[in-house]
Amino acid sequence: MIKKEMIAMLLAGGQGSRLGVLTSKVAKPAVAFGGKYRIIDFPLSNCINSGVDTVGVLTQYQPLRLNTHIGIGIPWDLDRNIGGVTVLPPYEKSTNSEWYTGTANAIYQNLEYMESFNPEYVLILSGDHIYKMDYEVMLEFHKANNAEVTIAVMPVPWEEASRFGIMITDDQKRITDFEEKPANPRSNLASMGIYIFNWKTLKEALIKNADQPALDFGKHVIPYCHENGAPLYAYEFTGYWKDVGTLSSYWEANMELIDIVPEFNLYEEYWKIYTKSEIQPPQYLAPNSKVERSIIGEGTEIYGEVYNSVIGCGVTIGAGTVVRDSIIMNHTKIGENCEMYKAIIAENAEIGNGVKLGIGEEAPNETAPHIYNQGIVTVGEKSVIPDGITVGKNSVIFGVTTAADYENSYLASGKTLIKAGEE
Amino acid sequence: MRELSQKRAICAMPVAGSYRSIDFTLSNMSNSHIQKVAVLTQYNARSLNEHLNSSKWWDFGRKQGGLEVRTPVVTASNSNWYRGTADAIYQNLNFLKNSHEPYVVIASGDCVYKMDFGKVLEYHIDKKADITVVCKEMDPDVNVERFGTVRLNDEMVIEEFEEKPIQARSHMISCGIYVIRRRLLIELIEKCAEEGNYDFVRDILVRYKGVKRIVGYVMTDYWRNIASVDDYFNTNMEFLKPEVRNYFFKQYPDIYSKVDDLPPAKYNMGANVKNSLVTSGCIINGVVENSVIFKKSYIGNNCVIKNSIILNDVYIGDNSYIENCIVESHGTIKADSRYIGENGIEIVLEKNERYVI
């Protein structure tokens, strides 16, 4: 008989549109992070480190990179005879076929998957946060309180509380009420989107609410459980937890890894983060290179200077090039005598010689100022920038560009240059 | 190999930052579509066993074939260690007898090279050879007394085979890679054992020269044996050359190794690294020049590392100076230490208490 005490369901279908061109070809959980990792590595590693060896990964938006990354779960030791990792895309049914229309709807469509493991508890996770958390401790808390639903929360500054789903608890940590983005918050405990459900409670709530359009945990399932008098508890988490949903928070979270002793420490022995290592060779630093306050992935070759940056695997940085405060993802090639200031360059991009990114005065982005701001220059994956181009701040480039796309070899601050359909 | 091999078998020696010596032979076998591999080992095999704990890194985790590690075992009829290369094969003769593949590749794990064994096998069949020995012409300035030297005639048949000659008459050496029919190998090994002989080179290759058709396959690509301290040091240093890195790291096919799940290397304030290889998991605060830094090493503030090899998981305290050294793995070097290899390469073994990381 197959029996698992707790299985995890990882929601990885979201686009993450606030990451702009970084997610135009890949789902947000598959976006590179911290040199060699992808965002989904953090919840997946947390699972295996917490003893959760059965994980369903729900995919929908641009799943190719995610699927190849997860494979059969070897890097996370999730290749199991029973359980392990399973990728769960939406599928056609005899009566209807629909996409995953909401977080809880996605879980509802995979009731059979969960049922097959006879779980006592189901852990619901999202694939877009950077954190280390022992779900087993949360489960103990859940059991100790005889809870039916436990929601992980973290205290946030009061002035920011109105941006979150806020949980109001009594002094036993039992949830008495909750508010979605309240104007006048009564508590500063924000939901982290991590839930432990008793399987029975979850199943019943999902089936009862199956007809609700865009069935969502925060909007429908949790209120439903609360109204029915199920004991809901808030599990307070005080460790490092970072939402990397926007370009500026993504950039910040990467930069925090460079601190002498980072708050989020990848070098700890007892809570390793696993990822699929595509390439293994060591990195090479040439005689005239200089690297300070940076982290660098495998197989990268540096001939220029790198300061305060996060560099992925298999990257080449040419001689005479200076990279500052930037994020450069796997397999990107940067030519000689370039200057990069606060640039995010996605995977497999090619930057010509003498290219300057992040030069000049700031100007708000013309098409999406809420995405491209803080002076960051963003270059999408597989983009090409020809020799000698200068690019301003808050600008974005995506696609194979040629000299003809630039006026006087220049793209001013705040400009958007997206050449679609050329992959 | 002096002190370095006190700790591990040579084929488990770390090479080029991310690898161990045996990775090259195993990857070559995997890339040549050899699916069944037995690793025969006995000397200090702990590191090696640890490294080979899963066959998935080289894609040997197949239903057909797979990777086996075979150390000597005590049985009702035998309780000897492997007394030589031929004896090691003899003690695992069942493995050969129970296989159905027609050919066997015998290779050692202490060499750094890329090779398609399929090509050697084609050559072997083409030449109607009984045994094919992979050979390489060494540069005239290389001392070949550690190797077996051969002389080939016009048909590439081996006419002369000298094991570890003091005065070598040829600069063509045997790379220790052989191709032979499985049935012939079983026959020769059984005969060898009957006669109380144990060595594959001396008692089979040298003895049967002229009787069996033993031909040489001359390889021209990069090949290095690392079984001496100087060769080990130089081979690692050669990875600082772009053409060597390009050949091993960028050209198809790849060399695979066990994945260690280490974080990216980190360079803090004061790091200044020139012409060096640095591997994952390292944290560097000092100056490194012309060196190879293996996995997970920590280099403290104001350190200077020159022309040295720092093996896995070494901690080097602040203000240390290291030049012309090989620092053994898991070593801890106290702050303000000074090690300089004056006449050649010094091997540093330091087991100080490690305070913090």
In angstroms, what separates the terminal alpha carbons of chain B?
A: 30 Å
Q: Rounded to an integer, what's the Rg of chain A over CA atoms? A: 23 Å
The count of DSSP E runs of length 2 or more, i.e. the number of strands of chain B, is: 27
DSSP E strands of chain A, number: 33
Q: What's the average pLDDT of chain A?
A: 94
Verbal overview:
The complex is a heterodimer of chains A (423) and B (357). In chain A, the strands form six sheets. In chain A, strands 1, 4, 5, 6, 8, 9, 10, 11 and 12 form a nine-stranded mixed sheet that branches. Chain A has a seven-stranded parallel sheet with strand order 15-18-21-24-27-30-32, with no helix packed on it. The mean pLDDT of chain A is 94. Chain A contains eight helices and 33 strands. With 423 residues, chain A is an alpha/beta fold. The N and C termini of chain A lie far apart (48 Å). The radius of gyration of chain A is 23 Å and the shape is globular. Helices cover 16% and strands 27% of the residues of chain A. In chain A, a hairpin with a 5-residue loop joins β9 (165-169) and β10 (175-180). With 357 residues, chain B is of the alpha/beta class. Chain B is 23% helix and 27% strand. Chain B contains ten helices and 27 strands. In chain B, the strands form eight sheets. A five-stranded parallel sheet of chain B has the order 13-16-19-22-25, with no helix packed on it. In chain B, a hairpin with a 3-residue loop joins β1 and β2. Chain B is globular and about 65 Å long. The model of chain B has no long low-confidence stretch (mean pLDDT 91). At the A-B interface, β14, β15, β16 and β19 of A face α10, β13, β14, β15 and β18 of B.
